[in-house]
Amino acid sequence: MHSRLRRGFTLIELLVVIAIIAILIGLLLPAVQKVREAAARMKCSNNMKQIALGNMNYESANGTFLPGVSRTGCCWGTWMIPIMPYMEQDNLNRIYVNFGGLDNGGGVPPGANVRYSGGVNGTIARSRLSSFTCPSDRPHNWSTGTLTLHNYVLNAGNSSFYQVSVPVGCTGGSTTGANGCVTFGGAPFGWYEDPATLAAGGDASPANYTSGDASQGKSGRPRSIAEITDGTSNTLCVSEVIQGPRGGDDIRGFTWWGGGAGFVTYQTPNNPAATDIMTGGGCGPNNFVPAIYPCTTGSTTTIGRMQLARSRHTQGVNAALCDGSVRFFRNSVSVVTWRALGSAWGGETLGNDF
Known about the structure:
Blueprint: H1 11-62, E1 69-70, E2 73-78, H2 90-95, H3 121-125, E3 152-155, E4 236-240, E5 262-263, E6 276-277, E7 295-296, E8 316-321, E9 326-330, H4 335-342
Parallel strand pairs: 3-5, 6-7
Antiparallel strand pairs: 1-2, 3-4, 4-8, 8-9
């Protein structure tokens, strides 16, 4: 009789099997990551479509597009508040107080004396809303606190948040920047429209309004759809920004605040040489990624405040047009086309890269 001997795997055979598994994982991992990013980008696109449609529904009910910021500027509410009933967040909208008011009690209701994070409003500003968050980004809070950052911002035009020409006071240019002068070509959403004070480097604050009367506010004037003479299918509505990195005073993506709630098309998406100018907020001195995230707090009389379109998607950003359609714009889009898409009544002819 012959005895049967059990033979196990040799060390070499085990190493070969492990090597084969490692190779297969190496081949499959990029594919899995691509599928995951594709799903995240689709979710992001759907979020933007809901915001663009929410704006259209707001226009149907109120006769104008959303205000980019409240009439008293930076700190008494942004478009995030009035859009809530159209984004299944009516419960939060109902508890918000003093939208468009002032700290001196001149707001609505009288004596409220609260900003975006004061009193009951802090409950809202600490809420993480998935419809306003891109799944490709990492959810952060501002600084080490609990105020939430988000990813979607409205179009404040082709120049700066002051909605005047860049450099301020330049002449002889065009909305796309002929002769180095970018003429403000209108925007579907109002921001800081007080050139005498704001374009000179000031900020929207109670000191800029007569006797603290909120009715004197000049910010955030809502636009009618008739003012979008370039056409809703040729004008950007909403795009993306990246949430400021965790661990520093980086206020980008803080959409409860006027300076973090919008974007301009002065520079192309994810432009590594372009700078966000977050006057009135913070950039976090050790917390930006130089490749796509340069920032300064130094607004000047030449170049005013601005936040630019940025994302963590590969090679571009999602953006919705004012007609509710959503497109993916590559980083390679020309500055001429991008600025033309940012203007609302510039009358430009869009390039072949649109």
